[in-house]
């Protein structure tokens, strides 16, 4: 298994270009099934979750062809099956979007329950409630979700929680439903707007994406389209936090600065200098950081997907910081690994109490999920000596060429093949 070897204490300097948003890509690729035509999707990140989705769509009869590294053509005219084999999904969390897309177009779907993550329960009860309110029958058995409907009729759906996945999934299932579907308490994340824009380019009739009330009026036909997905807010934020952690001056380019506002505000509160242009932000840090408090919230609040990275940064701030995780019920499991590097963090329920600055030293650590892995990389950038991070397949699910991008900024990070050698070999 590959692992990262990182030697810390080097400032970062230079320009890093951000790729397309993973969480937009994993929604828009299955959404192409609704079009019944040929869709060309550009600015896709070269990450494992995109490759996994292409494999799944091909297994269902869709023709997928990469026109270049980041442009995928999906011909969804002939879909041979609405039943997905588990082996094609691996541990993909976002496979649940196949249910909404197939239900919307074919009124049936058989999809294995989505892969979990290592941070608490990841139910899809709100997705299912929405499908049932549109008239579908949902049977969950043997780890598989079966949905079918004679017809889908628009309805009012209230989401108890502003769930990103449920919002997108119900939006997809409603595209052809007769009448109008209203989603109340919808999530407002940028990738929801991106998916709605893609579906509207295909001929759907979706209004209000990006607000808490989304209206979908069913249409009779949809067609293919050409679409470019938005930049990745979380990838961009990860590099902004890395610059603050290592010190130096980094320009993060090909982004939408508005999507970064909650993080920008917090980094400025911590003492970083931040300038922004049309499609870039410049982060300057001299290393001395103020403590600050973070509460994760739904967009436009502070993103839960930057919580692990920010907590790593706060271990270097002067004083005590409080990080409250209000979206997921157990998203601090990565802290055990950070402890191996010398952080001073105490977990009290949904809050992490972070004391800084803590002297970090390199250690052998394990990535437990995608953003936990990013957090370990951030910590390693400030640690004395060598850090080795295993399970980096999690990181490859959401970050394109992270080691090349960090190396180009001056970090000492290498992707090593084979199992991590025992620590003794380095002593
Ligand atoms: C999406 O997950 C993202 N994944 C996650 O990013 C992100 O952390 C999350 O949204 C929140 O922003 C993708 O877009 C593929 P939710 P999702 O439904 O849709 C509860 C990453 O690292 N809930 O918004 O699964 C749930 O338990 C990943 O890129 C229900 O109770 O998240 C959680 O507490 C990690 N019932 C809260 O809502 C449901 O039916 C938010 O979950 C659905 C969710």
Model description:
- With 427 residues, this protein is an alpha/beta fold.
- The protein folds into two domains: 3-19 and 231-416, Enolpyruvate transferase domain (UDP-n-acetylglucosamine1-carboxyvinyl-transferase, Chain); 22-228, UDP-n-acetylglucosamine1-carboxyvinyl-transferase, Chain.
- The chain is built from 14 helices and 24 strands.
- Strands 17, 18, 19, 20 and 21 form a five-stranded mixed sheet that branches. It has a four-stranded mixed sheet with strand order 22-23-1-24. It has a four-stranded mixed sheet with strand order 2-14-16-15.
- A hairpin with a 2-residue loop joins strand 7 and strand 8 (144-148).
- The two termini are 22 Å apart.
- It binds ligand EPZ.
- Residues 22-23, 26, 93-94, 117, 121-127, 161, 163-166, 187, 304-305, 327-328, 370-371, 398 line the site of ligand EPZ.
Care to give the gist of this entry?
This protein has 427 residues and is α/β, with parallel strands linked by helices.
Number of domains: 2
Content of β-strand: 25-35%
N-C termini distance: 22 Å
Helix content: 25-40%
Alpha plus pi helix count:
14
The CATH superfamily of the largest domain bears the name Enolpyruvate transferase domain
The major β-sheet equals: 5 strands, mixed
Features:
binds ligand EPZ; UDP-n-acetylglucosamine1-carboxyvinyl-transferase, Chain; 14 helices; alpha/beta; 427 residues
């Amino acid at each position: 298994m590959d692992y990262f070897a990182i030697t810390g204490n080097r400032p970062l300097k230079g320009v890093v270009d951000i790729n397309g948003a993973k969480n937009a890509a994993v929604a828009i690729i299955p959404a192409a099934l609704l079009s019944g035509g040929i869709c060309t999707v550009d600015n896709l990140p070269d990450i494992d979750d995109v490759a996994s989705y292409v494999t799944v769509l091909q297994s269902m009869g869709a023709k997928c062809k990469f026109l270049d590294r980041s442009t995928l053509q999906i011909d969804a005219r002939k879909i041979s099956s609405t039943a997905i084999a588990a082996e094609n999904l691996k541990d993909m969390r976002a496979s649940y979007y196949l249910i909404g897309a197939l239900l919307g177009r074919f009124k049936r779907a058989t999809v294995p329950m989505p892969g979990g993550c290592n941070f608490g329960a990841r139910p899809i009860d709100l997705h299912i409630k929405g499908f049932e309110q549109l008239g579908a029958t949902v049977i969950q058995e043997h780890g598989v979700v079966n949905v079918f409907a004679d017809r889908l009729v628009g309805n009012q759906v209230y989401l108890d929680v502003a769930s990103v996945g449920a919002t997108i999934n119900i939006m997809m299932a409603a595209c052809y439903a007769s009448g109008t579907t209203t989603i109340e308490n919808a999530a407002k994340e940028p990738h929801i707007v991106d998916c709605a824009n893609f579906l509207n380019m295909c001929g759907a009739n979706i209004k209000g994406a990006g607000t808490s009330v989304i209206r979908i009026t069913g249409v009779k036909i949809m067609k293919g389209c050409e679409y470019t997905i938005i930049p990745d807010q979380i990838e961009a934020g990860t590099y902004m936090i890395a610059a603050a952690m290592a010190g130096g001056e980094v320009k993060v380019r090909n982004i939408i600065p508005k999507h970064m506002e909650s993080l920008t505000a917090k980094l400025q509160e911590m003492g970083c200098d931040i300038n922004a242009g049309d499609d870039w932000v410049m982060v300057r840090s001299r290393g001395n950081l103020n403590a600050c408090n973070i509460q994760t919230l739904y967009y436009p609040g502070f993103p839960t997907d930057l919580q692990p990275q920010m907590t790593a940064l706060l271990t270097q701030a002067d004083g005590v910081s409080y990080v409250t995780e209000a979206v997921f019920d157990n998203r601090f499991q990565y802290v055990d690994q950070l402890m191996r590097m010398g952080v001073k963090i105490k977990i009290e329920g949904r809050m992490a109490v972070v004391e800084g600055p803590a002297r970090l030293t390199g250690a052998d650590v394990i990535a437990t999920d995608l953003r936990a892995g990013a957090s370990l990389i951030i910590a390693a950038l400030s640690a004395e000596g060598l850090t080795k991070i295993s399970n980096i397949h999690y990181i490859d699910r959401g970050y394109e060429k992270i080691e090349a991008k960090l190396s180009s900024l001056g970090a000492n990070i290498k992707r090593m093949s084979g199992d991590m050698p025992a620590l003794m070999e380095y002593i």
